[in-house]
Amino acid sequence: MDVGLVLGGLAVGFVVGLTGMGGGALMTPMLVFFFGVNPLAAVSSDLVTSAIMKPFGAAVHLRHGTVNRRLVGWLALGSVPSAFAGVLLLRALGVGTAIGDVVIKALGIALLIAAFALIMKAYVTMAVRVRRSAAGIASTGTEQGALSVVARPVLTVLVGVVGGLVVGMTSVGSGSLMIVALLLVYPQLQASQLVGTDLVQAVPLVMAAAIGHLLFGDFQLAIAASLLVGSIPGVLLGALASSRAPGGLIRRALALVLLASGLKLLGVSTPVTAVVLVAALVLGPLMWMEARRRHGLPALGRAATPK
Fold first, then answer.
1. 42, 53, 4, 32: which is closest to 238 by C-alpha?
2. Is residue 182 within 8 Å of 71, Cβ to Cβ?
3. pLDDT tens digits, residue range 23-82?
4. How far apart, in whole angstroms, are the C-alpha atoms of residue 50 and residue 64?
5. CA-to-CA distance for 135 and 168, rounded, in angstroms?
6. Residue 246 — pLDDT band, cuts 50, 70, 90?
7. CA geometry: angle at 282 spanning 129 and 305, to 5°?
8. Residue 73 Cα to chain centre, angstroms
9. pTM given for the model
10. Residue 5 · residue 15 · CB < 8 Å
11. 66: exposed, middle or buried (C-beta count within 10 Å: 0-12, 13-18, 19+)?
12. Has residue 20 got a pLDDT over 70?
């Protein structure tokens, strides 16, 4: 049992429980950069770990009724076969170093997309909340109107196909990318319902990708076992803390981690990465304040952002 991996799994599990996203986007880079794990082995081990960890969160949301089961069905229709196909595509691209290079580049691009997606999620959530408030619609987490939203099958299946392909190749996207895509397609859904729906659909999605990597990837039991020892209690602790922690602050930190990891995976030098992060830290809050003003909100307001 690797103590470092256990602690790493604990940290990532905590973030997942706290924010509902970031598992693959944090776990795989951590394995590659800090523990020197082969990229393909990192993706394989991460997916198997997620396949066991995610049902814990899914069960909580099912119990609280924050899952749109019809959307889960349409998403899974596209994502499950697409995730398995992503593994096969990755294997068809070559072996050895060729696969490692492809995984690294694909993962880097996926992480940058995930960082942008987190920002878009916060922005769209704010815009939707303002529109709902202006229309006199209460923002409750269990509105039946939101849960009974009319499904858009073709677009929803397409979201599943794209998300499944990315997850199958990189292990990233079952949380951050899919949630943002759902939010853009179904802006009337509450954030908690988006998270719940995504977590439930992510179970068969990640399982399909995990099975593919068990058959054709480079799964390493010792790595996954150590990660699970830490990640399962971590995700439970994160869920318990989520009601008290400032979710917006956690999401901003996660976006910075995704940005830095993506740039490094794409081969960007450390000085350039540092400059980009500093610019994001300085300009990000200013741009967010301007976005709040444009929606009629106080620039420095501390209104709670729905999780």
1. 53
2. yes
3. 777 788 889 888 988 887 888 888 888 888 888 878 877 887 878 899 999 999 999 999
4. 22
5. 41
6. low
7. 20
8. 19
9. 0.70
10. no
11. buried
12. no
